[in-house]
Amino acid sequence: MPAWAPERALAALLCLVLAGAAGAQTADLVSTTAFRVCSDPAAWPASSEDGSGYENRIAELLARELDRRVEYVWYPMSTGFIRNTLNAARCDVVIGYAQDAETVLNTNHYMTSTHVLVTKADGPFADVAELSDPRLKDARIGLVAGSPPATHLARLGLLGNIKSYELFADRRYDSPPDMMIADLESGAIDVALMWGPIAGPMVKQRHPDLTAVPLLHEAAQPRLSYRITMGVRQGEDAWKRQLNSLIRRHQDEIDAILRDAGVPLLNDMGTELKPEG
């Protein structure tokens, strides 16, 4: 046996012990009596302090299956959200988080959706389904600053047409999605490029004079469709597996909640609308 082998074996054993202890400590952070959700109080239609968001309904569904009550920690979805909620052990799950986000441990995805083009249902842009449509060359376009469609508009030479809205804002005081919709209805802009899980429910539930068309035909990068997961703390693999099981067993019910809200659902590849049933 080489001279370093006993020391290497001892070091490996110590690492396993420490890892096990850290895993136990991490697991202990998850409440066994409440389904503790980290959420934005003013991010309707996703989440709302009055419980009217589709993420609120998904939380209620999962909590019921776990036989736990729902408890919220409210914090605006802006800089410091994860640090001050999930990582501070004040709550145990973020219901909506983009897949592959490095700040959380992602569950399996429960939704794939895409950006949409919102315009007046009886207007000249109502049937536009691609950003390369020639009619957009003369359109005033609302766009969230730094969002993926911006790259496509730059490639198409349309950046001179845009009116920009903030990406991060405390929506209790300043709501870019509502400002975009208000500008669209007033005629300040002709179309709005928005994230479908925000725009779809806004149009369905509050603005029936508008239409939201999923952007399914943009082949160039960056992609406009994304898979949405739940986020838990790094290292909480057992909790992640438990949530994965719940998502798998209740996917149809989750889909029904999202469709009822007005969220455009895509297949896993993001290439076409997800069939019902």
Number of strands: 12
**Which radius of gyration do the C-alpha atoms yield?**
22 Å
Second-tier CATH architecture of the largest domain:
3-Layer(aba) Sandwich
Shape field:
globular
Provide the β-strand percentage band: 15-25%
Describe this structure in words.
This protein folds into 2 domains: 120 residues, 3-Layer(aba) Sandwich (D-Maltodextrin-Binding Protein, domain 2), CATH 3.40.190; 101 residues, D-Maltodextrin-Binding Protein, domain 2 (3-Layer(aba) Sandwich). Helix content is 34%, strand content 21%. Strands 5, 6, 7, 8, 9, 10, 11 and 12 form an 8-stranded mixed beta sheet that branches. A two-stranded parallel sheet has the order 1-4. The chain has a two-stranded antiparallel ribbon with strand order 2-3. α2 runs antiparallel to α8. The N terminus is likely disordered. Keywords: Signal. Pfam families: SBP_bac_3.
Short description:
Keywords: Signal. The protein is α/β, with parallel strands linked by helices and 277 residues long. The protein has 8 helices and 12 strands.
Write the layout of secondary structure elements.
Layout: H1 5-27, E1 34-39, E2 42-43, E3 47-48, H2 54-66, E4 69-74, H3 81-84, E5 94-98, E6 105-106, E7 111-120, E8 141-144, H4 149-155, E9 162-165, H5 176-186, E10 191-195, H6 196-206, E11 210-214, E12 225-232, H7 237-249, H8 251-261
Parallel strand pairs: 1-4, 8-9, 8-10
Antiparallel strand pairs: 2-3, 5-12, 6-12, 7-10, 7-11, 7-12
Pfam family, one: SBP_bac_3
Keywords: Signal
Signal peptide: 1-24
